[in-house]
Amino acid sequence: MYASYKQTEMAKAGEDYIFKQLFEKETSTYTYLLADKKTKEAVLIDPVHETAERDVKVVKELGLSLKYALNTHMHADHITGTGELKKLVPSVKSVISEASGARADVKVKDGDTLQFGKFKLDCRLTPGHTAGCMTYVWHQKGMVFTGDALLIRACGRTDFQQGSSESLYESVHKKIFTLPDETLVFPGHDYKGFTVSTVGEEKKHNPRLTKTLPEFKTLMKNLNLPYPKKIDASLPANMVDGLCNLELNEKTV
Ligand SMILES: N[C@@H](CCC(=O)N[C@@H](CSS)C(=O)NCC(=O)O)C(=O)O
Ligand SMILES: [Fe+2]
């Protein structure tokens, strides 16, 4: 059984593509399904362990062929769904940045591209929340998947996983805010009910990233957020592509 979830209203089936924004309620995580309608090739961005079965069900119902399961970073608050997805659909290749230091089938670097059907995602390294955060840009559809680097009217915390407020500020300003203003911003989480923003809106209204760098650094230093509840289980599992410790122990006895 998987945790409770809801699928948001954000589902689009354009002329030549499929886009779905899926939600995992316990950790307020967004998973995105993108596909080429003609070739049926699909990718999932930031799947969650508990909702991997749901994601596979959607993929199958739509007659899609899942090529990649991408992580924007090594998550601290939940176990990635990539390990579970690979069990359910063995041909899927998991993806994470080389800079994350984590295990995956494909390790991407800044400037790499990932192809599905006639579409491609541009990989932009955006460190700061973690040292290995990757933002994926779908230029052809004017969409950017920012993980926890840029959240709607917020941004990822910088107090663990080699976080750095200075790096995050530079990443967002140089690698995300340089995209066209109308680019749709899809984050890795939302804790307030937002589903989508735009680069133009965030440049104007993000209460953290509109500050000067010194102000931003002070603000981030004083966020005082509690550690994510599942951090102790998530980090070791996400280092090894989402295989949980329990399974690893079972294999070694
Ligand atoms: N309470 C949640 C964790 C909330 C949290 O720390 N979120 C992270 C992204 S997940 S690594 C974050 O960067 N938040 C920024 C913010 O301003 O909220 C839990 O226990 O799971
Ligand atoms: Fe995170």
TrEMBL record:
Q: Which InterPro entries match?
A: Metallo-B-lactamas, Mito_Persulfide_Diox, POD-like_MBL-fold, RibonucZ/Hydroxyglut_hydro
Q: Which domain of life is it from?
A: Eukaryota
Q: What is its EC number?
A: 1.13.11.18
Under CDD domains, the record lists: POD-like_MBL-fold
Localization, UniProt: Mitochondrion
Task: Name the catalysed reactions.
Answer: S-sulfanylglutathione + O2 + H2O = sulfite + glutathione + 2 H(+)
Metallo-beta-lactamase domain: which residues?
A: 28-189
Coiled-coil annotation reads none
Name its co-factor(s): Fe(2+)
Which Gene3D superfamilies does the entry link to? Ribonuclease Z/Hydroxyacylglutathione hydrolase-like
Molecular functions (GO terms): metal ion binding; sulfur dioxygenase activity
* GO CC term (a single one): mitochondrion
Give the primary localization class.
mitochondrion
Query: Keywords assigned by UniProt?
Result: Acetylation, Dioxygenase, Iron, Metal-binding, Mitochondrion, Oxidoreductase, Transit peptide
One GO biological process term: hydrogen sulfide metabolic process
Q: Which Pfam families match?
A: Lactamase_B
Record's family?
Belongs to the metallo-beta-lactamase superfamily. Glyoxalase II family.
**What does the subunit comment say?**
Homodimer. Monomer. Interacts with TST. May interact with RELA.
What is the official name of this protein in its record?
Persulfide dioxygenase ETHE1, mitochondrial
Which species does this protein come from? Ridgeia piscesae (Tubeworm)
